[in-house]
Amino acid sequence: MTYPTGDNPTFLVPCAGDFNNDGRSEIVVAYDDIDNVDVLVAYDAGSFVMQTIHSTGRAPICVAVGDFDNDTRLDIVIANYYDDTISVLLGYGNGSFANQKTYRTGSYPQFVAISDFNNDTRLDIVVANQLDNTVSILLGYGNGFFADQMTYPTGDNPKFVAMGDFNNDTRLDIVVSNGNNNTVSILLGYGNGSFTNQTTYSTGSNPSSVAVGDFNNDTRSDIVVANTNNNTVSVLLGYGNGSFTNQMTYSTGSNPSSVGVGDFDNDTRLDIVVANVDDNTVSILLGYGNGSFTNQTIYSTGENPLSVVVGDFNNDTRLDIVVANYFSNTVSILLGYGNGSFAIQTTYPSGPFPNSVAYGDFNNDIRLDIVVVNWLGNTARVLLGYHNQVFEKKMTLITGNGSRPISFAIGDFNNDSHIDIAVANSGTNNVGIFLGHGNYSFANQMTFSTDSTPISVAIGDFNRDTMLDIVVANHGNSNVGIFLGCGNGSFLNQSTFTTGSKSQPYGIAVGDFNNDTLVNIATLLG
């Protein structure tokens, strides 16, 4: 089954999680060329509905999912390739997310993953930096914020990162695929967030993706690597002391770009799935449980599949596959039969050039949802899952000709317990308000004038009257505008506050930064 993404889905790495707390996995896909990520929400039959869109940095290339602020609601982290940043979007538990917070990485971050590297029960982030030949570690504080990066050298062109305990010391280690060295790097963890120097092992040509699993049932972590130029995967069996055997290789389709693992035939032996970019297929290699695998079986996908993830999207206890199709602007869902075979794909639209996908329950309805990042749109899109596990685009909100909507925030502006939307329309110099009916539909847009080029919007109760207000960063006038809410969905004319001559604010956040119970405003200045 295929699901449309945006035009030209770029990378590679899908991610998944339950974003709406319905027990079903949603998918997140990254699109580089549209600067967005898509979230696809799951219905019980393995289908999804479109879609909320969230701004990211430039060229979002990879996405991962986890609970960064320990509120039991899933959050998203995105690698922004051209900005040398990651974006963290905290989830509200209803399928929507707060505006991004960004953190610096190395140069050209092209992969992001999460785990707890210092054993403090708080999620941390690891990033592969292509141009620096490093990985960045950002330790989490457990409140949605992260420490500045620490970097560790890798091989040339680190493409992908996976985690496992390779030396059986109960501390997480890292494996990195090095595209230009034809190697993987092993960095053993000390359990305090720091790592040893790398040890390298040979792979095939241009390794692009790596995954970890126990392929020979010896309780030791093994590695599988997708070799783009060889049309193979390499399997390196672990000795349990941090070292590995020489590779064994298995044939795949043409240009394998992404690899995942799971038990697809319910025999307690791990199997492998590979996305083949040039063939528009995925390969399934069933495991014998001794470290070897069957010849591949092929299933069709959309055009240019760059990223694959594994999860149970229709709640039948059988593993399914989700693929981001870069040139089809779709994601494909292939439902598993539990015997190692899969149904024909169902496709759902994503944003342009979806290059990474993930899943989770973003709205706490026990159905898995999907998040996709769009390379060309600088956005992330969320597709929520339905009870029949089908995804669909639910609505399109019209912001007007030339409006160029660039940021949005959500809240209940008229106190009817239905979620409303505020949009910063940078092309028409206004804020658009869409009042929600509570049934996935919204009233037509009401607009309130801003100053020049409103580029970011946030909400909070700034005058302590229990009614939500709006703050906008006016990039062109170097100020912020405050719209006090009337509690009925309308707002007073803006009051402006300067951010400094030619400061050109481009981001805004709201919170109690000095613990005085009053809401404060923070701006990012150009």
Description:
This protein is mainly β and about 525 residues long. It folds into two domains: about 1-395, TolB, C-terminal domain (Neuraminidase); about 405-525, Neuraminidase. The chain has no helices and 43 strands. The strands form ten sheets. Strands 2, 3, 4, 5, 30, 31, 32 and 33 form an eight-stranded mixed β-sheet that branches. Strands 1, 26, 27, 28 and 29 form a five-stranded mixed β-sheet that branches. Strand 30 (about 355-360) and strand 31 (about 370-375) form a beta hairpin. It is globular. About 60% of the residues are buried.
Q: In CATH terms, what is the architecture of the largest domain?
A: 6 Propeller
Count of helical segments? 0
Any low-confidence stretches, pLDDT <50, length ≥5? 6-15, 28-37
Radius of gyration: 23 Å
- Level of helix content? under 10%
Q: What sort of overall outline do the alpha carbons produce when their principal axes are compared?
A: globular
Name the CATH homologous superfamily of the largest domain.
TolB, C-terminal domain
Structural class: mainly beta
- CATH topology heading of the largest domain: Neuraminidase
Can you identify the CATH class of the largest domain?
A: Mainly Beta
Number of strands: 43
Strand content: over 45%
For the report, how would you describe the main beta sheet? 8 strands, mixed
> Could you tell me how far the N terminus lies from the C terminus, measured between alpha carbons in angstroms?
43 Å
Mean pLDDT: 87
Count the domains. 2
